[in-house]
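Tokens in:
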């Protein structure tokens, strides 16, 4: 009793199934798209919430942060702030990506735009405020860093000036020509260093003017600058005085050395003149006369040295040198010895002249 089915019926059934399948696929695709849009929407809100939470956290940190109490703490806080700036840059890039996602969602118009726009506006405002707070805190750190660096440099300058003051106010002027020369060389090197620091002292006022108002208007820092300027002035003044004192000491020691050399010569010639007996023979008289000619040349040289000594002594006395009495006494003693030698020479020359006259008279006879 089998009867074949009408092919048209089969075709209709197949077409019907195909149509149902296409409708099902269309519904599935629509559902997938709606779910995908929903996922993007809630991902967007989640990322925005995370951004807000991160902003709130950083706001609390910045509100609680101080600017440090000294240079070390400011440097530590500055390094931490640089790290936070790096985090801020990374978070800015993430927020920019999230904002782009929100714009894409708005462009699709799949959901109400009111909540999305409100959230974007709110987060943007908070982010802008955070960047302003960050910039202000960075400026405060820079101001504090400049202030503490200025204070540290000023303290170092004060310590250096105090050490130099102890050096230039020393009462050691040496004990002889060599030691005084060595001290004078060292002192000139110190004077050069003092002169090199003049620019740093003069620049303190300009550096102070560059500090933030709340720092440069402080009474302590202004007093500190005045103290540095006054201390530098004292150091420079004492350095000039020590230069003069060392030069005077060197002049005294050189004068004593020159006096000693002249007196050695005077002693030698004085002893020779006192022991010398004027010969009676003509040949011996001529020999002695040649010696006196050489002696005249030596005396001219020594006379020049004694005149130099007298000039140095006069300069020291006129300058009010503390050893003026001793120097004057030494000068008088040398001049007295020199006059004694001159008298002896004149006396011996007179005797020689008398002997020569007698000898010449005898020869003529």
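Residues out:
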């Amino acid at each position: 009793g089998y009867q074949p089915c009408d092919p048209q019926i089969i075709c209709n059934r197949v077409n019907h199934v195909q149509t149902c399948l296409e409708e099902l696929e269309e519904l599935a695709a629509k559902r997938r798209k709606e779910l995908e849009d929903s996922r993007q929407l809630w991902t967007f809100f989640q990322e925005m919430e995370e951004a807000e939470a991160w902003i709130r956290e950083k706001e609390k940190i910045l509100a609680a942060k101080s600017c440090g109490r000294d240079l070390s703490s400011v440097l530590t806080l500055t390094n931490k702030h640089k790290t936070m700036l790096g985090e801020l840059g990374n978070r800015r890039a993430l927020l920019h990506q999230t904002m782009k996602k929100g714009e894409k969602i708005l462009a699709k118009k799949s959901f109400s735009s009111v909540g999305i726009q409100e959230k974007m506006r709110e987060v943007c405002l908070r982010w802008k405020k955070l960047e302003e707070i960050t910039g202000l805190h960075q400026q405060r750190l820079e101001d504090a860093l400049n202030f503490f660096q200025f204070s540290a440099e000023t303290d170092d300058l004060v310590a250096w000036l105090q050490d130099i003051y102890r050096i230039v106010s020393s009462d050691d002027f040496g004990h002889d020509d060599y030691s005084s020369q060595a001290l004078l060389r060292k002192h000139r090197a110190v004077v050069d260093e003092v002169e090199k620091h003049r620019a740093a002292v003069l620049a303190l006022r300009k550096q102070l003017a560059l500090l933030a108002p709340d720092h440069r208007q402080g009474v302590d820092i202004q007093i500190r600058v005045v103290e540095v300027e006054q201390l530098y002035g004292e150091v420079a003044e004492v350095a000039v005085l020590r230069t003069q004192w060392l030069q005077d000491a060197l002049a005294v020691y050189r004068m004593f050395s020159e006096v000693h050399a002249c007196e050695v010569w005077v002693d030698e010639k004085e002893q020779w003149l006192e022991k010398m007996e004027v010969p009676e023979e003509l040949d011996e008289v001529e020999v002695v006369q040649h010696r006196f000619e050489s002696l005249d040349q030596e005396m001219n040289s020594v006379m020049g040295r004694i005149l130099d000594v007298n000039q140095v002594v006069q300069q020291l006395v006129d300058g009010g040198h503390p050893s003026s009495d001793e120097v004057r006494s030494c000068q008088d003693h040398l001049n007295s010895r020199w006059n004694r030698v001159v008298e002896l020479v004149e006396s011996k020359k007179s005797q020689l002249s008398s002997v020569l006259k007698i000898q010449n008279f005898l020869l003529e006879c």
